[in-house]
Amino acid sequence: MEQAACSEYAVLCRIFFMNDKLSWADLEVFFHVAESGGLSAAGRLTGLSPPTVGRRMLALEQRAGQALFHRSQIGYSLTPAGKALHDRVRVMHSCSIPVQEILHARRETPLIRLSAGTATAHFLADKFSLLNRSSDGFRLNFVTTEAVLDIAHREVDLGIRNRPAEGGNLASLSLGILRFAPYRSWSVGNPDLLGWVGIDPAHAKHAAVRWLHDQGHGISVLANSIATVHELVRSGAGIGVMPCMIGDCDSSLARIGPIIEELTEQQYLVMHDDDRHRSPIRRLIERLTKIYQDNGPLLAGDRPMRGSASA
């Protein structure tokens, strides 16, 4: 009996996978909708959102050229064509379980790729224990870049940005306000003689970096990365513009002027709409949101200063 069932499975595989209009991914989602009788339950089993499951089933019906479900307020029930397909897909699903078990046993712990600018990545890396635990079943991959990576095409899974998602199958979540101020080293003997430390024009992509050039301040030292600017300011090379969440947490630095209000920005967490309901992604989103909530005054520059200093 088992041999006959798997022979039928092999035949069905040839039928479905030689037809580029159908895929096992679609049929597996169909199987879970048919078994559970609804989009929400199928979404929980597949890690997809209910609207995405619904769209996938409509697309499957269009490819099949016939209705597979009766839709009602109480859920999804199978049409005769849907039942016939379900009978066959159930065999395919049953025969695929041993394969899934082998792959699951051998695969590495999945990665969640989180992209952020240098300052934000530094801020979050310092709070790693609040983001990822050994029991989570996923690993974090910090992607530190000032570039905007393509989440819609899965270059990364989550991105922290200073603007919401624009187009594509993306979703955005507001995280909080981020403010900037000028800082210098406490150890400088003659602060009145300090110039500014800035990013060179070729790498001046962020508004806070371009601001320094737009003001016409005398820039005495240039660098091509924000991390290097931070180290130069700490060493006493000059004054630098930094996010308050970095400058106010560095005991070697002094804030030497008011918050630069025109640089104030809203930070957003951007994600693929199909992925945000997956359990590991959802868990990480909740933790990121809590970190931003708990550190709101620091991010907004409201943390009490350790003392006053002058340029």
TrEMBL record:
GO terms for biological process: DNA-templated transcription. Signal peptide: none annotated. Keywords: DNA-binding, Transcription, Transcription regulation. Pfam families: HTH_1 (PF00126), LysR_substrate (PF03466). One of its GO terms (molecular function) is DNA-binding transcription factor activity. Residues 22-79 form the HTH lysR-type domain. Belongs to the LysR transcriptional regulatory family. This is LysR family transcriptional regulator. It comes from Paracoccus gahaiensis.
